[in-house]
Amino acid sequence: MARSRRNKRVFKRIVEAISWKTFFIVTSILAVVIVACLGSNIYRTSQEKKLLAQQREELDKQIEDIFSDTVQNISDVNSKKRDSIITLSAVGDILCENELIEDAKQGRTYNFNPMFQNITGFLKRSDIVLGTMETNFVDKEYSGFGLRNSPKEFADAVKNSGVNLVSISTNHSLDYGISGLKQTKEYLQDIGYDTVGDNLGDSRVTIKTIKETKIAFLSYTCVMEKQDKKKENELEAANLYNEKIAKEDLDYAKENADFTFVIMHWGDAYATKPNKEQEKIADFLIDNGANAILGNHSAAIQPMQVRKNKEGENVFIAYSLGNYICADNNDTSKVELVLNIELRKSGEDGKVTLNKVDYTPIYMLDNGQDAQNRYELIDMKGVAKRYASGEETNISKETYNKLLDGLKLLQKVIEK
Fold first, then answer.
1. pTM, 2 dp
2. C-alpha distances out from residue 194 to 206, 260, 341, 390, Å
3. Tens digit of each residue's pLDDT (9 = 90 or more) over 274-309
4. Nearest C-alpha neighbor of 88 from the set 308, 345, 415, 300
5. Alpha helices, DSSP H only, in 147-259?
6. CA-CA-CA-CA torsion sign (241, 92, 200, 183)
7. Using CA atoms, how far apart are residues 369 and 6, in angstroms rounded to an integer?
């Protein structure tokens, strides 16, 4: 029994000895591991700091290089003057027949604005928008045929649509004599239009400064209602075309402007191609300094072309822009467009050249006598695409087919 107790004490001491030994070994191993880890972390931290310092140095150098490049680029840009771009849009004849007047009537006043609401966005992007006002604004009875006279609200709506410079030299300029021409001009100018196309005492040439670029506008008519009954001073007041006057005006424009537009009221009614007289006049205008010629009066679109003048420069001709707004039942007359012209002025020598020309097809839609808004201009291509995809439900299949025919007509005529 005593021996057994002695053995237990010995075993206990052995266990205690082993436990302390194990503890010491484990502790030593842990200490070594900790020291190794600390050393590794210190080394790693040191290396990471070196790497970060190196990366930061490289980044600082890159930023410095980028800054230097940017400064150099700015210096290069400032040392070279930039070209400037001037955008113009042009539309054709602005007509106000009796049907349009009736459709716009609201009690004792008139509202023509809904007729233009779909296409104003195509005009208001441009620096200036040209059109031909083929009606008068005098204190007489309104009439869309014969002696043409429209409500003043019509002029307001056309201007609201984006048109801001109009020619008043048309075959209807003298419907109410020189007095009517003066009244029309004064009213249009009073509501903010620039006008061209009269010879009432001021310069026949209108010059507009757009982005420090002077652009001249000239306008003449080759036709006049009851011309044989008009007096010579009346025809002169309305700028009836003749080569002597045109040459004087072109010379003046060349001396005082950077680029010259000539607006011509000419051609045969409903013709989709120019006649010999139009071609002859175009030759004369180009030879004497016109940079672009915009025609109207035919109530139909006619070909466009780019020709070279004596100096080898491009001259743009649109023989007819058709109508802008009308109530004509002729399908050809309903096919219209907004012409877009881009001019470029060189920052080096100030020379202004034709840079780009394109157009937006539009259509004069007649929704019928019972419609709330009978007449409205629409984007031909956009509406046709939406109808084809099922998104457009406000037009009929018949109208859709007319839009397709109109687009084909435009392509065929303009590319002649």
1. 0.80
2. 8, 16, 19, 42
3. 999 999 999 999 999 999 999 999 999 999 999 999
4. 345
5. 152-160, 177-190, 232-237, 243-256
6. positive
7. 128
